[in-house]
Amino acid sequence: MLKIIKTSAAILGVMCCMLMSCSKDGYFVDTGVHNAKYNGTILQYLKAKPVLFDSLVMAIDAAGMNEVFEKENITFFAPANSCIHKAVKWLNEDLRSEGRDTVSKLTQIKPEVWKAVFSKYIFKGSYVLKDIPQIDTLDLAAFGGQGYGSYGGRSMNIGVFYNDANGIKYVGYRQLVLSFIPDFSNPKTGLIHTPIATSDIQPTNGVIHVLRYQGHSLDFESRRFITSAKSAGISKANE
Asked: CA 145, CA 173: separation in Å to the nearest integer?
């Protein structure tokens, strides 16, 4: 009797595996290894992803920087639409509190403001994750990343964060981090870190790293963007 039960259990197990395999075939599609290369410029890539970047594309155009993203060899840490939307929303709240006209079009914000902002996210040359040194945001003395001169000439910190796995330090997945340095006299103090959601996208004229939009403020602090926009002056909607 025991032998019959064991035999029946074994047969049932095989049948379950077969059914699971058949079910898996119905939804599982092996898409292979994704190619990081993109047959087009950085600007063309951004335009091809309107859900993520259509407002960014409009702001780049407002900055008069289309040629930079079309013709120059650069590494771009791309902020998503949500970063643009949040920045304009906070700017409008500030303007409204002062009884001033609010912004309804991105072109109302002066080109020099957009250019100054985006220049912090652009670096000349092509840098993929493997080119960047390690950063430990909790132990910058041990692993501090590295300072890189941005397109606008401001030094920014870039590093690769090595995550932990199974309780072992630095053996997990690796993630790029772009950091704003508030105080150059203390370059490892008070850094504003922005992790990268997707890295190493490689169009024909450089590299794109897409910033993780949760928690990121355009220009790394909302107040910095608001002050810059108000200082430069804001055009009226019909101008």
From this structure: 17
